[in-house]
What we know:
By secondary structure, the chain is mainly alpha-helical. It has six helices and no strands.
Amino acid sequence: MRALSMYVLFLVLSILLGSCQEEGLSENDKMFMSLAGSAGIMEVEMGKLAQQRGVRTDVRRYGDQMVKEHTEINVEFKQLAERLQVEVPDQMNERNQQMVRDLAALQGNQFDAKYIDTMIADHQFAVEKFGEAHAMAKNKAYKTWLAKMIPVVKHHLHMAQHLKASRTDG
């Protein structure tokens, strides 16, 4: 009888401990993290270009904010990846590198227009993909981070849309 009680206790503890463990990341989660890592680096690089080449004051200010916020986000993102034992890029993928090169080739009002359009398109895409990733995420830490980032990405999108609508040297 005592052996049976110990077995039942062991079984219950095993079930409880197993349910407390974090669920791992799926291959889709890992792929998204790789893409998000590259995009985060791209946001910083494009923001630096806006700081240097932006004609409009509000475009330069937006670039400043993207550099500051995405640098902070990238640090937090790397810490999350380390905790989850996922390798994420420390440089942009080829697509993002090409986008930066294309932007760097422009100057003046053409630069401002392309930067704003790129930020709108990139953040619209990010809002969609972060939402999809959040809906499918099973790992609590990853899902929490995604939930925290969605309003930030939406805010960046709204700021870029406001830049496009204002078209002034604000």
